[in-house]
Amino acid sequence: MKKKFLTGIVAAIVFANTAIAQQPGIKRTELQRHDLSIPGHETVQARIDFAPGTAFGKHKHPGEEIIYVLEGLLQYQVEGKAPVTLKAGDVLFIPAGTVHTAKNVGNTEAKELATYVVEKGKPLVVLTK
């Protein structure tokens, strides 16, 4: 009984995180999630697909985000820094808790591979104003 209850709670948390992370024209696909040797932390790897002209609004993560652009042109606005536009093969590091945005500024679909090193049990994406 306890196992089913805990499984239900975990499923609800995953669903809530996915619902927050999905925005029109943007698809987030979690590829893998693993506990780290650092207690209370995990790594999550996801592919994020951006339709032309779409943007992921202001948000932050409970840990570091390491971005690798797979396709297209993505513009990132990281709090306290000038906007930067990256193309396929470019990388970006975003410190824990830093508010940022991402926008596809190209004419084709853009894709990034995002690797997060985060505190376990916290929402992966926190939308901000």
UniProtKB/TrEMBL annotation:
Q: Can you give the residue ranges of the Cupin type-2 domain?
A: 48-114
Q: Which InterPro entries match?
A: Cupin_2 (IPR013096), RmlC-like_jellyroll (IPR014710), RmlC_Cupin_sf (IPR011051)
UniProt keyword terms in alphabetical order: Signal
Position of the signal peptide:
1-21
Q: Pfam families from the xrefs?
A: Cupin_2
* SUPFAM superfamilies tied to this protein: RmlC-like cupins
Q: What is this protein called?
A: Cupin domain-containing protein
